[in-house]
Specification:
The protein is an alpha/beta fold. The protein contains twelve helices and eleven strands. It is globular.
Length: 375
């Protein structure tokens, strides 16, 4: 376990504590042993070190005393800031995106997931390549790798660029295969539902409860990285495809979202999203907004949503189905872990699936079979 100091800047934001708690969870999920949390009061970031030299000195002293090996900032650091901080503190310094990437690297299971993480890491790295090697400019030209006069930096950039290109090509091939599968499903007129939500909201637990499956659920951020799909039977002749997906988190950098596009594709293509919210979290409204922001970014903003208020056991709410004024289901309150409200959720899904199949969507190719599904 890496002894780690966390650093957050207090610029007067009302939800600082939530941000700090989340960073702590992220660090623990990455396998860190958090030995201290340092809060720096600042109106505007210092261009050289983000927190200013006084705070740097304080952290340096503290780190020596606690034998810390890593410092994690709760903010995006510019490449120069990261470099200056590493030089001053004489240890590894990473920012929030770097930390999330670390977790992704630990969690990636599937071939595609690993490719996506590698792509995100390379893109992050290439923005962070600095002219450390310029003194070698022009001295290592010649054999094989480097063109004459090319600096190490340019070589690194070029190699990374080549690798990024290859990864993107392989991912796009995998995406095409997935697209074919999706078309086949669409031709069969299958109702598809994707579970989305903030990380740790309980998506995998809910997935397991509905699909009687065993997706990996854990009190860690980003426990799930790969999309898992199962066919769920609701009633004789009525079934649908349910997918569990990667969770969202605030300030997810654009390149991370970009790298996970293939994984998130199932979300975009779904007929319905179950938006799982930790109803017991004080940050639930900010989390809903953040999830919707990412959904809009991946062009899934228009997919119909039903909110699932989860963890009602932890906030003393009752299982409940909420409806719009026009009678359509808008939200279901459950406890996936303790099974509260799960029969109501299944009943709601049956109603939504029946609506979908009777609305005649996707029934064109095989009408007879689809008709017989409506019991
Ligand atoms: N109290 C309570 N805890 C729950 C409930 N549902 C899930 N949890 C817990 O919340 C934690 C996260 O659950 P997961 O199902 O892994 O959450 P997730 O949304 O899939 O998380 P990621 O895949 O990491 O984004 C676990 O410790 C679960 O046991 C619930 O209804 N009540
Ligand atoms: Mg999960």
């Amino acid at each position: 376990m890496t002894k780690t100091v966390l650093v957050a800047v207090d610029s007067g934001q009302f939800d600082l504590q939530e941000h700090v708690d989340e960073l702590k969870l992220l660090a623990i999920s990455a396998g860190a042993d958090v030995v201290a949390v340092v809060i720096a009061k600042r109106k505007a970031p210092d261009p050289a070190t983000y927190i200013g030299s006084g705070k740097v000195a304080e952290i340096s002293e503290l780190s020596t005393e606690l034998e810390a090996e890593l410092v994690v900032f709760n903010h995006g650091l510019s490449p120069a800031q990261q470099r200056n901080l590493e030089a001053a503190l004489e240890m590894r310094v990473i920012d929030r995106t770097g930390l999330i990437l670390d977790i992704f690297a630990i969690r990636a299971q599937s071939f595609e997931g690993k490719l996506q993480v590698e792509l995100a890491q390379l893109q992050y790295l290439s923005s962070r390549l600095v002219r450390r090697y310029t003194h070698l400019a022009g001295q290592q030209g010649g054999i094989g790798m480097r063109g004459p006069g090319e600096t190490q930096l340019e070589t690194d950039r070029r190699l990374i660029g080549d690798k990024v290109k290859k990864l993107k090509q392989r991912l796009s091939t995998l995406e095409k295969q997935r697209e074919t599968q999706r078309r086949q499903r669409q031709r069969r007129g299958q109702f598809t539902v994707a579970i989305v939500g903030y990380t740790n909201a309980g998506k995998s637990t809910l997935f397991n409860g509905v699909a009687s499956s065993k997706a990996y659920a854990a009190d860690q951020l980003f426990a799930t990285l790969d999309t898992t799909s199962r066919k769920v039977y609701l009633a004789p002749g009525i079934d649908f495809i349910l997918s569990d997906t990667v969770g969202f988190i605030r300030d997810l950098s654009h390149s991370l979202i970009e790298a996970f596009k293939a994984t998130l594709e199932s979300t975009v293509q779904a007929d319905l999203l179950l938006h799982v919210v930790d109803a017991s979290s004080p940050a639930r409204h900010a989390q809903i907004a953040e999830v919707n922001r990412v959904l809009a970014e991946i062009h899934a903003g228009d997919v119909p949503q039903v909110i699932v208020w989860n963890k009602i056991d932890a906030c003393e709410r009752e299982p409940q189905v909420e409806r719009n004024p026009d009678g359509k289901i808008s939200a279901v309150a459950v406890s996936a872990r303790f099974g509260l409200g799960m029969p109501e959720l299944r009943q709601s899904l049956l109603e939504l699936a029946t609506d979908f199949y009777t609305a005649g969507r996707g029934l064109v190719a095989d009408k007879n079979q689809a008709d017989s599904q409506i019991t």
